[in-house]
Amino acid sequence: MNQDNPTMPDKAAAFDQRDRDWYIDKAVQAIVFLGGISAILFIIGIFVFITKEGLGFLLRDFSFSEFFLSPWWEPTDEDEPTYGILALVAGTASVTGLAMLVAIPFSLGAAIYVGEFATGKKREYLKVLVELLAAIPSVVWGFIGLSIMNPLIIELFDVPVGLNVLNAGVILGLMAAPIMTSIAEDALKAVPDRYREAAEALGATRWQVIFKTVVPAAKNGLLGAVLLGVGRGFGETMAVLMATGHAINLPGSVFDSVRALTATIAAELGETAVGSPHYEALFTIGIFLFVVTFIINLSADLIVRGVRNQ
Amino acid sequence: MNTATAEKLETPAAELAIRTQKLDLWYGTFQALFQVDLDIKNGIITSLIGPSGCGKSTFLRSVNRINERLGYVRIEGTIDVFDKNIYDADVELVQLRKQIGMVFQRPNPLPASIRDNILYGHRLHYTGKRLSRSDQDDIVEDALRQVLLWDKVKDRLHRKAIDLSLEEQQKLCIARLLPVQPQILLMDEPCSALDPKGTEAVEELIWELRGKYTILIVTHNMAQARRASEECIFMLMGKVVEHTATEDLFVTPKHQETANYIEGRYG
Lengths: 310, 267
Prior knowledge:
Chain A has 13 helices and 2 strands. Chain A is mostly helical. The N and C termini of chain A lie far apart (58 Å).
């Protein structure tokens, strides 16, 4: 055998040869693996960090009823500091709620137009524009709230202050709408075309195709889009800080100034002594925000995923 | 050919469901149909056969104008359905599709319950009267009985339609056309996604519907055309080669191309 083919032994010996490609392959595998798990490492790291910073407060001064039920956020009171986030939660919730009232019709309408009506170039341009809109920095939105919305609201509604729930809600709604549009459009696009064809062949009009068939079929994805918008509203800081008026207040109407959880952290953290109860209380707010947005985003993700698996 | 033409002339217009004259169709710049002249008789089953890409599905899809979804389809010539050119400006698509139901290659039940699938078309077209629940139940039962599906699904009408087998889904897709009371049913290779047993069952159903509706069925399966249709149209390269009684077409084809095709020399 070997005499017939003298190259055979060499070839067999080459089976364990590791050339450059083999090492590159292994290295790339390792790098990709690191990249893949880094997201998990970071999120755990961040959670551990904010928990560690806020833990002292949680163990020492934390009182569940005061923290969640007292509307008084007075951490700098020298005699008796109180750490109640009720007013801040109300501020965040009212602004986010109003923002959703603004954003849901806008984003669903835009998604339906881009996904179902617009064709060809128009559709491509619109999609790019929507993505661009999502990329506007939040401080720019805050600036619009301060310098355009504020005087506008004062003039239109004859109120003394234009930095309030209405202002921040509208700004936040416009901010959240692009990303919601994008996700909602993906959800509509995921609806198989044969459903539309079936409905059209049965004699449904465009409107009926969309509202009786496409939207119901995409409802999980659309709900996911709305939830992501809520998460965005909850976590947004800069625009809300600039447009709400930043006054601790349980809002009675949309014309009341409020203060958001996130804005409180942003505004106060730089002025506290590291390790002081105030500092730790701010981190406790951070934990709260983290948990809430985590739950919102996770459920949005699960809902959207549920659609894909169907 | 001459005898076929003579036969056509003998058929009074009133007995025709679909009549096309000099029908040309383009997808963009690609011409898919050439001068198609067809007279399709009312109340019988006509099958369309021919190799892939011969234009049979294209023709079918232009009869209910579902082709237009693509947006780049252009048509010249006329398609008369019951003596009215459906490409006239005053034709409403909704009314057209109420008259002409369509069954697709892949069963495409809507993502809803069996019951809602059956009622979908009816709800679109008969919006005037509010139906009581028992009236709706009657419609559902009647439609499902006609497609021989009632006994199988009567206990699970509220289950999702996509949980049915492909054969049952396709029967459901036929059933949901019936409450709309169409006159013509277009079927675009309705059995191509089914196994032999499902094919047999759906063919049986199509035969069952004979006489109640004018049925135009596109098929790849010559045995099916032979079994399940009364007249047969052979198309090739976007043109009609032969249109005659199914029996004659398979036994004594008048054209060499037809003979070649049915003997399986290409296809």
